Amino acid sequence: MGKTSSDTALRARSAEQQEAAPKSPSSTAKARLDLFKFVPFRLNRLAAEVSSALSTEYQERHGLDIPAWRVLATLGFRNDACSAQFISQCTRTHKSTISRAVTLLLHKGLIERVENEADRREFRLQLTRKGRALYEELFPQLLRREDEILACLTAQERKQFSALLGKIEQSLDLIQTSEEADAKQAY
Fold first, then answer.
1. What are phi and psi of 31, to 5 degrees?
2. Where are the alpha helices (DSSP H) in the chain?
3. pTM for the full model?
4. What residues pair up with 127 in beta bridges, in sequence order?
5. Where exactly are the structural domains of the chain?
6. Helix orientation angle between 84-91 and 95-107, rounded to the nearest 10 degrees
7. How many angstroms separate the CA atoms of 94 and 92, rounded?
8. pLDDT 10s digit of each residue in the chain, 187 long?
9. I want to staple 58 with a disulfide (CB 3.0 to 4.6 A). Which of 64, 109, 169, 171 is the partner?
10. At CA 62, angle to CA 107 and CA 92, rounded to 5?
11. CA separation (Å) from 78 to 41, 75, 84, 131, 177?
């Protein structure tokens, strides 16, 4: 039986559709994920590198690791005490990591536990005078270090970068301001 022009046209359309259709995992076995173009990988690597660069300011001089600094920084920008759970949620750090950091900071006398007046079974955390003094000493140094890290960007690029990060944070329903963090104290 001979091929008709409609058979040929049908086969041509089918071939075009197959080329245009997304490839299934089995048909793209040779294609690989390029981690250096994969945004989650890039963000994680960038965050780790920036955290490491900043950590020299508080690690070498004060023996604080990154989780301990996160606890100190979270308590430092607040006016009142908060729970370890709040710090864990706010910083997106596992609660066991925050717990170890809290133990270290309590031992160093940089933070203290205070009774929650609304629920006497719960303790909250706050900076001691020593902790507040350390925070006040460190945060200007960290802001200078942040400026050094961002020096490769123009002022306009910094604004754009901040706005783009904000859009991503918003799409993931992450807290973006101190006021929002305080409003969501119920973490």
1. -75, 140
2. 5-20, 39-62, 66-77, 84-91, 95-107, 129-149, 155-171, 178-183
3. 0.74
4. 111
5. 34-183
6. 120
7. 7
8. 455 444 444 455 455 555 555 555 555 567 889 999 999 999 999 999 999 888 888 898 899 999 999 999 999 988 789 999 989 988 889 999 999 999 999 999 999 999 877 777 788 999 999 999 999 999 999 999 999 999 999 999 999 999 999 999 999 988 777 777 767 654 3
9. 64
10. 75
11. 31, 5, 13, 13, 12
Q: Residue 163 is encoded by which pair of tokens?
A: 């706005």
76, 139 in Cβ contact below 8 A? yes
Question: What tokens were used for 185?
Answer: 């104290």
Overall residue count recorded for the chain in this entry: 187
| Cα–Cα distance, 83 to 105 (Å, whole number) | 14
Rounded CA separation 48/168 (Å): 18
**34-183 to CATH, choices 1.20.120.10, 1.10.10.10, 3.30.70.60, 3.40.80.10:** 1.10.10.10
